[in-house]
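Final report, Chapter 2: Outcomes

The project's central promise was a pipeline that accepts a single protein chain and returns its three-dimensional structure in a standardized token representation, suitable for archiving and comparison. That pipeline is now operational. To close this chapter, we reproduce one record exactly as it appears in the project archive, with the input sequence first and the structure output second.
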Amino acid sequence: GVDQWLFEDQVRVSVTYFENRLQDMILFESSFAPPFGTYINGGDGITRGIEAEAEARLFKIVTIGASYTYLRTRATDVDAPADSAPTLIEDEVFLRRPAHSGRAYVGVNVQDTAGLFIDLNYVGRREDSSFTSFPAVRETNDEYWKTDLALYVQIVEGLRFIGRVDNLFDVAYQEILGYPGIHASWLAGFEYIFKL
């Protein structure tokens, strides 16, 4: 990979290629008889891709950045029967691994005064299974965008008001198929920093 600061350390760019070869991955092999399945070392696989990131610092108080990941996965050898579980199928992609994902963020931070941070996350379509049928089958989990916001305001030295909103626009999504993501939620409170 390459990681480089530019323009008098105001801009950072990073590009990384990665490749992993996995062996003896753990699979759950289903059965009709109790205990209805067992865990086995059932297969091998490979993951490879590219991660790219850029970040810039502006006016000493603003940080903006973005990152992107392209991921390819493939099961190369599977010992378990193809109909025993959808978690690993030879020559197919891994479950819950999006080919495309990314993030963009903006932060404004006036030291010891206030800060505001916005984070936009993207997760692309990916193969998944809800495991609601037997044998379980593969399905496609939709892409989603989710925005989070955080802020702080300094009240007096050492004491801050802090707040956070997760899923700001109340987007419906499922990180895992069959399990809805958290609706818009917020947290607010105070933080006191002791100096010894």
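Archive annotation: The longest strand covers residues 37-58.
This record, like all others produced under the grant, will remain available to the consortium after the project formally closes.
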